[in-house]
Amino acid sequence: MRHVHTARLLNKKTAPYIFLTPVLILFFSFMLFPIIQSFIYSFQIFQQGSFRFVGLANYRDLLNDQLFRLTMFNTFLLLFVQVPIQLTLALIIANLMNSRRLRLRGFFRVSYFLPALTALVAYAIVFQVILNENHGVMNFVVRSLGFEPAPWLSSRNWARASLMGAITWRWTGYNMVIMLAGLQSIPNDLYESASIDGASSLRQFKSITIPMLKPIILFCAVLSTVGTLQLFDESFILTRGGPNNATRTITHYLYQQGFQRARFGYASAISYVMVAFIAILSYIQFKIAGEKE
């Protein structure tokens, strides 16, 4: 009996680890090991089929790499211009979608969220067709209105604006749904009390909606920051990094160095610089939002 009782206790203690073993194996094989390996590669260079340790040489080369600085500028331009626009639109649309006076709310909610379900490659190709300078829909509409067609993808500024527009179309609905869920968790009693006190809709939005939605807005801001710093598909497919590298993002540059030029150590160094920026910006966002943890 004692042996049976001991075997049962042993099974209860070991069973969770047995069930977790496949997941842990996958995690260490495809997550933790590549992270550690890429960190080691960032101190090496790949030459003649083998890796050679070079210390901080890859990181020093990044400081003198003009194209790296340009791609960083492009990425941060998207971050500081497009992300605030996207989050502002998402907040406004979520507030409208939460209104009881809006008819067909379900239809509009699904319509705004549908772009988030579109495959990244597919929507980038669609925008490439729409923004085609000779046969695209956008320039057809512009000509119909009597204006000169715009070089959407061949001009530096227009290409950046087109890239921002495509990203805004793709991700605004995604953030809208998250904010809408946060809005629906705010008690209606607060708005009713504010209405009785004579507060206008704008005043209620500033004094109730924004403060109560602050954690959700912070969450969306962190997600959008991480997503923008990892932006690749749009730069690679829609604009191909052009014209003259004006829309090439840091992840696109990482791909170019690692997989097209086989500079795996240099690409690994770029990835860890990105990780550092993501960590710093996320920390700043939490501090600005007044979060202690």
Characterize the structure shown:
This protein has 293 residues and is mainly α. It folds into 2 domains: 2-41, no CATH class; 63-288, MetI-like (MetI-like fold, Orthogonal Bundle), CATH 1.10.3720. Helix content is 75%, strand content 3%. It has helices at 2-41, 57-63, 66-97, 105-117, 120-130, 137-144, 156-184, 188-196, 201-212, 214-229, 233-239, 250-260, 264-288; strands at 44-47, 50-53. The protein has a two-stranded antiparallel ribbon with strand order 1-2. A hairpin with a 2-residue loop joins strand 1 and strand 2. Helix 5 runs parallel beside helix 11 and helix 12 (250-260) runs antiparallel to helix 13. The model has no long low-confidence stretch (mean pLDDT 86).
Please write out the topology.
Blueprint: H1 2-41, E1 44-47, E2 50-53, H2 57-63, H3 66-97, H4 105-117, H5 120-130, H6 137-144, H7 156-184, H8 188-196, H9 201-212, H10 214-229, H11 233-239, H12 250-260, H13 264-288
Helix pairs in contact: 1-13, 2-13, 3-7, 3-10, 4-7, 5-11, 7-11, 10-13, 12-13
Labels describing this entry:
single chain, 293 residues, mainly alpha, MetI-like fold, 2 domains, two-stranded antiparallel sheet, 13 helices, 75% helix, globular
